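The aim of this short unit is practical: by the end, you should be able to scan a pair of folded records and say something sensible about each. We start with the first protein, listed as its amino acid sequence and then its structure tokens.
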Amino acid sequence: MQSVNEGILWGLSKVFSLEYPNAWGGIIDTSAQFNKSEISGLQQILRSNHDEQFFCVRNEEAFVMRLQKQLRLDETPWTASGTALITGGTGFLGLNCAQWLATKGIENITLISRKGSLSEAGKETIKAIEANGVSVSIVKADVTDYDGMKSVVTNIPNLKVVVHAAGIEESERLDELTYDSYLRVVSPKIIGTSMASITGGEGLTSYAIANAYMDSWGNFQSQNSLAITNVNWGAWKGGGMVNDELAKYLKLNGVQPMEPQLALLALDTAAGRSPGQFLIADVNWNTLHAILPKKKNTRLFEHLIDKIGDRKTLNISRYSFVDSIQDLSLDLRHKLAADTLQNELARILNISNVSSIDKSKGLFDIGLDSLRVVEFNDFIKRKFGLKLPVSTLVSIPTLNAISDFILKELHLGQIDIAKEQA
């Protein structure tokens, strides 16, 4: 790692690979010097027949990314002393981390909060922590204000531990990204990240970039003898950025919200092995691997799934799209069904910008001919379990209407009031 700014491009590339799979080729990270040895390594990568898409080249060596499973948690828990500072300290994640630190030997905890206020549940949590002899103070401050945070930090005696639990999630695709929305999400990131920086986050461009940047910052500082533990969090159950609707959507992708107690137990292991980078998440990697775009690199997970290789070996038939959307809200069902159809049309037409396919147009207006309509109909049969006459499919005026029709046939859409009255 030569510059923390490298993380911005890594985060951007992972979002691009998800949102534009047909245009995605890969990313190769070289040194600033880019010497003759690296040119040779780059040539070998470009000439070789491989399915890797994320490379780091240093001299003549090419490095790739892999996730390695931690088979068991450490039996000896991590301990600390002195004062701990927690950004986002009055939020769900911050308060859980405060409770955890209070059991680790920390004597004083400073909670940084932009609003400086506590919920009733938060007040009870603070009382429980203080009842165990740990002093807790709340400081109103904005982590994006450098001078303000510098004043806060310099006035905290015996500061030994900093935990970053502040963050902002803003949903936008890459083609919707603006400079202002990027700054809103990137600015609060100091220490601590999300799994979005590793797996990417479709529709979460700024969030994935911000977290990837902080991974780079932590790794860069670790190389310079500062003990940094990067924890890429999955979803937490009970609060944080994951509401009930988002939790249902994550389950579609194989990501289960974690019980806080289990997440903190895993954090014990990560903290005890500092410095390093750790992903703490409850993920069905087979499911996630199976639903990623075909051109998206999935060898990152090869040590975590049952069998790597052709997607048929993953027994995807067990993963039922229809079953997975039954418990979602009507609006989210419609969105996921329409997006699924839109993505398939982009693949059939070899269109890199999926969002350029207008869902308010019919199949022929979108660009399908009769043979491609048959191919699209075969996809609907495989994905939704519906066998539709081609004549029925082409008679439906728009892609959104096709999505609505499919959901109604599956008894997952709105009731047609006119039909019921007839």
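Turning to the second protein, read its sequence before its tokens, just as you did above.
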Amino acid sequence: MRRDGPAVRPSAASTRQTLVVAGRPASSSRPLHSRTVPSADVLHVCFGGLGGHLSVVNTLTRELGAVGVTSGVVAVAPAEAIASTAGSWTGVEFVEPVAIRRRADLASMWTALQAGRRIRSRVVVMHTLRHTTPIALGRLATRQPLHLVTRESHSLPSRSWIVNVQSASSVMWGQAVVFLTAENMAGYPLRHLPLRGLRRRRVIPNGVDVERFRFRPRGDGMWGDPITIGMAARFVPGKDFASLVRVIAALREEWGDRCPRLILAGDGPTHASVRALVDELGVNDRVELLGHVPESQIPEFLDRLDIYAQLTDGEAFSMSLIQACAAGLPIIASNVLGVRDVFTDHEDALLVEPRLTEPVVAAIRSLVEPGTGLAARLGAAAHRLGVERYSSRRMAASYLELFAELDSEGPWLEARGRLADRA
């Protein structure tokens, strides 16, 4: 696709925000000339605030850009969330902000429709589903092909009827649906409906750039002093930070001064309640709450850890877990949907029953027990898993193959060949 260069167009609902375009700041107070048309090979429509979409889209756009495939972003989020990611988007030609004020925000739908009309791309990937209809209508109004891919990233336990309605409207317009795991595809609640996009279903897991992470063995003779456990996630009800805090309190009773440190990275609505629990249990000197850690600093965060723990009620696909794999950390994770079809218990992670403290305590004991070599073995196996199955290049190759099925005239096969040459 023709490149018109970096471009930003502010929406009426998101003026005076600063965005990053093609790796450098661009002020939305500078108006875009009306004849300038933002264009890219792939348009990503995603949540524009902090979270998993930012990491996934940045990883994918970097890999695609390295083989000559251009990308643009429509960032959908509250205005303050879009502003919080200024400087965070990489490898894109433009970022188009669509600010939302509430769930039923007709103004943001109109802004999205205008973005769909104005932006030129060969393929659209819907990482967030709420605004699929206006994006699709905008493309139809300008006679652009509807090469639209719906990316299903909601975990099955957290799905609501609103999510299912949004998903149905997106899959109805699309030509393909991407699921992050086979288990999520098999359990997709709308799988039996005659929706257009379901004719072409693919499992494409998220990937990480494994070269960004330093792999070092953990285990006998290589533990930190004290041992450090960590978890990185949004502080939301489905992420069980509280049980990890209770684990530290239990280990302090049992181990005294040898009690591990716990470092928690992330922010969100349950952050205050977790902080209150830390105070209540008197483990302030053993638990550190970092707040949000930028994506660029995640490798450094993981390098501080001896054990990675992910306690959760369910996942669509956890980028944090795969990043921990890339770092070669021994992993303790809840045995729930979205985890158990990625890891095998006692082969590349220790899987524990959710919402219980004692199984996590027992798992930590088994990892640090001298002479077993369990931690080193699990860490090495997790690293192999990340490299062989969940690398960013493998993810990019799968998307390029799917794009080629939708758009036979695009640059996809040539780009896939260049990607293979880089492996």
